Amino acid sequence: MSISTGHPTTSDVLPVTLGSYDSCGHAVQFYDDDHFLLDALSRFVGSALEAGDASIVIATKAHRDGLVERLEARGVDAALAVSEGRYVALDAADTLLKVAPGGQPDAAIFTSLLGDIITGAASAVGHERPRVAAFGEMVALLWADGKHDVAIQIEELWNGLAETHSFDLLCAYPMSLFSQSADGASFGRICETHSRVIPAESYTALPGEEARLRAITLLQQKAQALESEIEERKRIEQVLRERNRELSEAVATRDEFLSVAAHELKTPITSLRGFAQILLRDLGQKRDISPERLQFALDTIERQTDKLNQLIARLLDTAQIEAGKLRIEPVRTDLAALVRSVIAQQESGENHRFVFEGPEQLEAVVDPLRFEQVVTNLLHNAVKFSPEGGVVTVALERGVDGGVRLCVTDEGVGVPPGQRERVFERFHQAHGAGHLSGLGLGLYITREIVALHGGLVWAEQPAHSGSRFVVALPPSSRA
Amino acid sequence: MTRVLVVDDEQNIRQVLVYVLEDEGYEVVEAYDGETALGLIERQHPDVIILDMKMPGMDGWEFVRRYRELYGHRAPIIVLTAAPDAAQRGADVSADSYVPKPFDLDVLLECVSSILGTTPGN
Fold first, then answer.
1. Contact present, A449 and A334 (Cβ < 8 Å)
2. What pLDDT, in 10s, does the model give residues A121-174?
């Protein structure tokens, strides 16, 4: 048993080149290179003239001159054919001006002008059943000019003329006019207006059926790859747009943060400057400062410098967190004592009542300074968002899993359900419009410190009003 | 005696203003937010209002809106603001004048006396 690997011996595909003047109806030839077009054209026109038939060429000057050179090389006496009236060469742009005055094709002018030329050329042929081979590139000029609809109208007028006159028409378009994927639809419209479509030379110049089939296969693969690539690019474009939007939002958030931070820093500075100037005025004008006023001024300066220092510390902590450089140094620490001492600091300056619920002693391995910061932040928030005289309950306990749980519960405005995750985001202020003070960094830093200890922090709604913040440290923190 | 209403949520800043304005012979009334300030106006009839913009509760914007509704332009308003563009902020609420924070006491006093066109004792 053998398998035939021979080349196909018969072909039922159309001839793909105009090898000689045959009846092509209304054909369109696509081309990459002018030389190829002129060679094809000289075969089309030359074979007609050699057979004693007629030819009409409506082309650019360059193409008309190139054609005459090739006809002469072929041994065709173009000048003689012109004098006999069998060969008519017209300029494409001039003819276009006549058949489409003002840019709009005139069917009556087109039919009478070109009809008369075809009839005249046919009558110059000395034998029965004269043939006329016509070549036109007015449409290619229009297309290059972006006048696609007018070109299609001209193609249709040629088709209309073929109903009353006998001629074969060849049109030609350079492939370079269709280099965008958006040209696909109009390319299809051109093909539709022709009875025969001849591919450009990268295909038609191939020797034989086998090479052409291979070329088609390669083109199909190229088309497939391009389709996929376009899809992929669209997807990437979408991702880029999305990413760009996120970045713009991040920049807007940072701008807003900078303006809030500047405002927050100016407030203590206003007090410092004000009191410094008050004291200077007293010295300058009264040569005396009342002890009461001096006490108040110095107390304020002391507190406001501390506030400034804390604001700056938070900004620096945030910078460290963002750079991934915030470190903790965990050591064995009595958390009960630590929490009680933070409460004592808060009590001195605030009109809130603090209740501590927890054991006398509870040891865990934490970074004491950073953990103190966590407790301070949570107490500060509880005070900030609850009314004067409100109770703040701080509960500390050993969890059933051996970890540690710290709950700070207040009787304040509470955290709206939709905000319970977002309050921990950088620069976020759940009650921004109402309270407006602060950088929106306290809970962000708190969450990061707790996370560095391997723990979690979250917001809850207690049974009554107010809010509860829970810090849970893992069993690994056990001393 | 010329009466000044100082509206600011920061107690320290109010205290600075109380000291310096009283030293200059003004009578000073304090409020820590817009709502308290509105409540004081009917009884105290201030001659000029020094107003912070960012305050919890009723802020400066809302205070000006309500004040204009109730009293029009009875007392001039000086906006005291830490915003980057103090002039713009003053213009936003059509204030009569503005002083940026952190303020200079002489600039503030100059602003108050020029807006009143008088000296404190009159």
1. no
2. 999 998 888 999 999 999 999 999 999 999 999 999 999 999 999 999 999 999
pLDDT score for A349? 67
In angstroms, the CA B98 to CA A268 distance is: 19
What are residue A17's phi and psi, to 5 degrees?
-130, 155
Q: Which pTM does this prediction carry?
A: 0.61
Residues of chain B neighbouring A274 (CB-CB closer than 8 A): 12-13, 16-17, 20, 102-103, 105
d(CA B30, CA B40): 9
**Counting Cβ atoms within 10 Å, is residue A59 exposed (0-12), middle (13-18) or buried (19+)?**
buried
Mutate to test the interface with B, among A260, A267, A386 (most CBs of B within 10 A): A267
* A295 lies within 8 A of chain B by CB: no
How many angstroms separate the CA of residue A433 from the nearest CA in chain B? 8
CB contact under 8 A, A278 and B105: yes
On the CB side of A222, how many CA atoms lie within 13 Å of its CA? 6
Q: What is the pLDDT of residues B53-86, one digit of tens each?
A: 988 889 899 999 999 999 998 999 999 998 888 8
Cα-Cα-Cα-Cα dihedral of A133, A138, A140, A143, to 10°?
-150
**By the 8 A CB rule, do A461 and A423 touch?**
no
Sign (positive or negative) of CA dihedral A436, A437, A442, A444:
positive
